[in-house]
């Protein structure tokens, strides 16, 4: 049993190129909340963006923000009225919580990821911001807690969130069983898409990227074949289902060309919000279905089932740092020459 101290450390971004390990008061769980002793956190692109630019997408820092929306740990205390959970239980967290009445139009029934106003851990989209989980302790609404299956570590559990993103993307495509799949862009999400496609029964998974180290991770995560675009290798042709995970507008023309006539292209990588040239003619002449994929709904539960079934996410992890070296961890995660995939922070250790 942990001894609860009145203070804790947290990874806080104060502005562009200004991240600090600050001391803050340990939070106390209110009614309906759980106090989580956070053990592991995974650094995501949005964490890097807040650190490098003071903004992620359209969300800009108005005041300091605790980073992190990929995290897991153990329950340290329960607020009043919380039942069905026990102190010491290993858990992860669904980081999204709709703001408002939660009612969606009928055409969006069940697609809470498309709710217009959502608080997300580690996000500056609202003022006050929504602090993330890169701290030794974090209070969480009990309905956002997800217990880990037996045999799944908290380090693996911290990656349930990005695996859920990948599973949501795979779910946006037609049935994959027996099909050939291409994943373009093999950062952490792309590599997890390769693993999720394999888990969902894809017959053959091809991974393409400019980075040999990223391709090695994708191979370890389940890709049958890799294409090193930096070495002049091209994308395959006539692929049934293509997942574009690079978010690079220049990739759109080539991935549309790689998609089979009548095939499906799922856009997983975030495209810029500004105008960018792209060759899109094949979208029409090849009658390609182009589908967007954004975050996830409840696929974090599917991710935990997959982890419990033995889907191994550990090849994704290339670096581990203690909390006090968070600045160094962010620098490694942001450096394209560092050979990193998923960089993990050890946030609380007995």
Automatic annotation (TrEMBL):
Keywords associated with the record: Metal-binding, Oxidoreductase, Zinc
Domain of life, source organism: Bacteria
Statement: the UniProt record of this protein carries the keyword Ribosomal protein: no
A Pfam family it matches: ADH_N
Cofactor(s) required, per the database record: Zn(2+)
Membrane-spanning residues: none
Enoyl reductase (ER) domain: residues covered: 15-345
InterPro entries noted in UniProt: ADH-like_C (IPR013149), ADH-like_N (IPR013154), ADH_Zn_CS (IPR002328), ER (IPR020843), GroES-like_sf (IPR011032), NAD(P)-bd_dom_sf (IPR036291)
UniProt record similarity statement: Belongs to the zinc-containing alcohol dehydrogenase family.
Name of the protein: L-idonate 5-dehydrogenase
Species of the source: Streptomyces ortus
């Amino acid at each position: 049993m942990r001894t609860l101290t009145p203070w804790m450390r947290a990874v806080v971004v104060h502005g562009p190129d200004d991240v600090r390990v600050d001391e803050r008061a340990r939070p106390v769980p209110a009614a309906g909340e759980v106090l989580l002793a956070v053990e592991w956190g995974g650094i995501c692109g949005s964490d890097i963006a807040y650190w490098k630019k003071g903004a992620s997408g359209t969300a800009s820092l108005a005041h300091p923000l605790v980073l992190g929306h990929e995290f897991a740990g153990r329950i340290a205390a329960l607020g009043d009225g919380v039942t069905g959970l026990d102190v010491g239980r290993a858990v992860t967290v669904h980081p999204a919580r709709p703001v408002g009445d939660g009612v969606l139009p009928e055409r969006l029934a069940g697609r809470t990821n498309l709710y217009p106003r959502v608080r997300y851990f580690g996000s500056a989209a609202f003022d006050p911001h929504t602090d993330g989980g890169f701290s030794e302790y974090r209070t969480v609404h009990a309905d956002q807690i997800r217990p880990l299956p037996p045999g799944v570590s908290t380090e693996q559990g911290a990656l349930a969130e990005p695996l859920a993103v990948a599973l949501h993307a795979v779910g946006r495509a037609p049935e994959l069983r027996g099909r050939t799949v291409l994943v373009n862009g093999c950062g952490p999400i792309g590599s997890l898409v390769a693993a999720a496609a394999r888990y969902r029964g894809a017959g053959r998974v091809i991974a393409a990227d400019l980075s040999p180290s990223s391709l090695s991770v994708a191979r370890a995560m389940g890709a049958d074949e890799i294409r090193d675009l930096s070495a002049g290798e091209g994308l395959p042709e006539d692929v049934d289902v293509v997942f574009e995970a690079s978010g690079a507008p220049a990739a759109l023309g080539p991935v549309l060309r790689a998609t089979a006539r009548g095939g499906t292209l799922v856009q997983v990588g975030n495209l810029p919000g500004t105008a960018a040239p792209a060759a899109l003619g094949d979208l029409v002449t090849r009658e390609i279905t182009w589908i967007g994929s954004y975050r996830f709904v409840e696929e974090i539960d599917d991710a935990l089932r997959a982890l419990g079934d033995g889907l191994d996410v550990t090849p994704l992890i290339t670096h581990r740092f203690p909390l006090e070296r968070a600045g160094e961890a962010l620098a490694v995660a942001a450096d394209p020459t560092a050979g990193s995939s998923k960089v993990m922070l050890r946030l609380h250790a007995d």
